[in-house]
Amino acid sequence: MSRLLTGSIFTLLFIWSIGCSSDKPAQGLVAVSGNITFNGMPVEQAKVTFFPLLETKGNGGWANTNAAGEYVIKTPQGALGVPEGQYKVTVSKRLNPDGTPPNPDEPPIESKAKEVFSPKYSDESKSTLTATVTASNKTFDWKIDKSK
Question: How far apart (Å, rounded) are the C-alpha atoms in residues 125 and 91?
C-alpha cells in the first residue's frame, strides 16, 4: 500500500509541475522580444544578451534567434522576461572557418569559431546597443549593418 501511495504522490507532483509551466513572464518580469537582421536578412542562431545597467535588478537574460531572426529573452534561471530597467545589449554570432556553427559542447577558448559581428554589437564593453525595458517598451529590433 505504501508503494502505491508514494507512486501516486510522485505522479500527482509530476502532473502538477507540468501544468504550472507558462509562456507568461513571472511576477516582476517583462517579456522582452525582438528581431535581429543583418544586411536586411534575418539572423539565425545569434545570441542576444541583456546585461543590467545602473540600478536595474536581476542578472539580465539571453536568447538565441530562430530562423526568422526572432528572439525571446529568458533569465539565466530560465524564467521568461527580465526586470524593468536599463540594459546594455550584445548580439553575437560565431562561426567556424568553413561557415558552420561551433560545437555547443566545446568551450569558446578551444573553438576555432570566430565572431561574425563587429565589437560594436558583440562585445559587452564596446556595444552601442542599449534597451530601456518597461511594461510598454518590450520589443527591440536591431539591424546589424556590417560585419568586422
Answer: 12
